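Suppose you are handed a protein chain with no further information: no name, no annotation, nothing but its sequence. What can you learn? This example shows the usual starting point.
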Amino acid sequence: MAKNNGVDPRFAATDDSAVQIDDVKLSLEGINLMLNNGFRESQEIFDKFKRYSPLMSSGWSFVTFMNALMTYEEDKLDAAMEALRETEKLCLPKSGGFMKSLRTKMIRGAGSGSGKMSSEDRIQRRILLADCQLYMAMLIFSRQEMTGILRGGWLVRKGYKIYEKTYEEISKIYESRGHPMLANPGMVDKNGEAASMEPPTGWVTRRS
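A reasonable first move is to predict its three-dimensional structure. Written in structure tokens, the prediction is:
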């Protein structure tokens, strides 16, 4: 069998929209490769499918971000910031890139008869969006400029607020299923101490 210059045949196609993939499984594979010192292989996976879905775009920008922090080269720091901004735009509601990313999923799920975004998809995109805010804040903090520190602090707060809103939505979903959760946790308690991050009592998800 002929080899394709060492490139995995799954990524040999030139148009990622023409390939059907399990983005959850593939993104996990890409992150595992990165964590096991396979940056090049991980980058190849995410570069190929970065426009397939917000999840794949998030994996691509995260790998780019980690590579920038490890090398601390100016051009890679800039590239990481641009990658995170691209993922941010893809996760924002009512953006052209976001709707484009849904086409393949809507075609695959045509039997549902509805183009309305599910709660799971909406929550996933909020979390990815909040992640982008924090990663961008870290890049800005790394520049050690006063204006950067102020902007980075604003991004940290913005990201936390998105996490906070997402937690409230997840709490409502759990409560509707008979699994009450604790009230929205704060970053600090009323005494100024770090708030407890322990999970609620009885917060157990049953597997079928």
